[in-house]
Structure formats: C-alpha cells, structure tokens
C-alpha cells in the first residue's frame, strides 16, 4: 500500500513539474517568437543587403525611433486618445444597440440589414465626408475609430442576448420575471463572453480607423507622422510608427484579456480560455 502511495505521489510530482514547464513555455513563447522574428529580419536585411528605403533592418528602425522619440511619443498619444475615445463610444452604443437587437425580433428585422450595409462601406471613403462636416483635427479620427469598432460589439452582444434558451425564458416568465429582468439577470451575463471577445477585436481595429483618418487629414497622430516620413523617404521612421501602433494594440488587447479572465472565467472553466475566447 505504501509502495502504491509512493508511486502515485511520484506520478503527481511528475505531472506538476510538467505543468510548470508548460506554463513557463507558454509565458516565454511569445517573446521567443518576437525576438526570433526580429533576429531573422535583421540577418536577412544584412545578408541580402536590402536597401533601407525598401525594408529597413530592426536596428535602423530602433535608431529612427530613438532619434525621433519625442514626435513619436506626441503623435502616439494623439492616436491613442482618438482610438480610446472612439472605442469608448463604440462600447456604449454597441452594448445598447446589441441588447435592443438581441432582445427584440422587430428591432433585429428593422436595423440589422442597415447595419450590415453600413459596415460594408469602406471607412476610408467616409473620412472625406467627416472632414467636410467636422474639419481637420482629432474629431474625424474619433468618429472613424468608432465606426470601425462599433459593428463587432453590436453583433456579439446581440448574439449573446439572442442565444438564451427559450425554455429558460419560459421558466423565468412562469416565475414572474419581466422581460427586463430576463435581459439583465440572464441575457447580459450570457453575453459577457461574446462581449469581451468582440472587445479584443474592436480595440485593435479602432487603431486602424484612427490612423486612416489621420492619414487622409494630417493634423496630428501616428498617421500624420508616417505620411510625413514617407514623403521624405524616411522608411525606418514609418516602420517605427507601425511598430509603436502595434505595441499600443498589444497593450490594450492584454488589458481587455485580463479583465475578461477576472470577470468571465466561469464561461471557460475546464477549457483553454485563450482558445475559447479567440485570444
């Protein structure tokens, strides 16, 4: 009996050690991939003597970022502000409209075709109209970030609300629950995993909307910086702007993922949370 217990303890220790190694590998893997990509990029540019104006090496991009760090920081803050303002508006409007669409067949039939048609319009075609209406500045970038990140939130929240089982609704109605109670106490919690999945998509595409507007109507922001740099054939600075935008997107995605794990961990219990939520 003692021998069996010792074997079971040994198996448990081996499994625990394997689990710790797996967690360490999962933590290190993104960094290994990123540094490996930049290493291959640097070596390829050096070995094949790729001209800087075609594809700058990471070392050239780093030097450009250090040289122009202050304009890069200023324009990054402008883009971040426009992105977060548009993204915040998209969350508020997307949740409200998603709840309305998901809980009412009439609203769904009436608004969903219009939303699909509007989402099909290239946002770069809308930016000149926004500039005519609101002028050159941060406001067109905020509205474009809102427009491009609004649709995923609406669709996912509406899906979460609409997937509440009819049998569960019937039981709740029999117990005296009103439609508003069903939405607040059952529909919204059911929609939370869908909501956070849409946030991780919307927060990254919101940057796309802001930079599109900044590129079309250059006043401030990363889009303006990259347009000015490309006009001077300063390609390393263009790539520095791209990498800065990517880093801001990663940070916001990570924040959304941390909040998701703390609030909707129940939805992915017993599964790989990253795979289950699209992370």
Show the helix and strand layout:
Blueprint: H1 2-47, H2 58-67, H3 69-103, H4 105-120, H5 123-134, H6 138-162, H7 166-174, H8 179-216, H9 222-231, H10 235-263, H11 273-276
Helix pairs in contact: 2-10, 3-4, 3-6, 3-8, 3-9, 5-6, 5-8, 6-8, 8-9, 8-10, 9-10
- Please, what is the CATH homologous superfamily? MetI-like
- % residues in beta strands: under 5%
- Total number of beta strands: 0
Helical coverage, percent range:
over 70%
The SS-based structural class is mainly alpha
What's the quick description here?
The protein has 279 residues and is mainly alpha-helical.
Could you please describe the fold and organization of this structure?
The protein is mostly helical. The protein has one domain (69-276): MetI-like fold (Orthogonal Bundle), CATH 1.10.3720.10. The protein has 11 helices and no strands. The protein has helices at residues 2-47, 58-67, 69-103, 105-120, 123-134, 138-162, 166-174, 179-216, 222-231, 235-263, 273-276. Helix 3 packs antiparallel against helix 8 (179-216), helix 5 packs across helix 8 (179-216) and helix 8 packs parallel to helix 9. The two termini are 45 Å apart. The model is unreliable at 271-279 (pLDDT under 50).
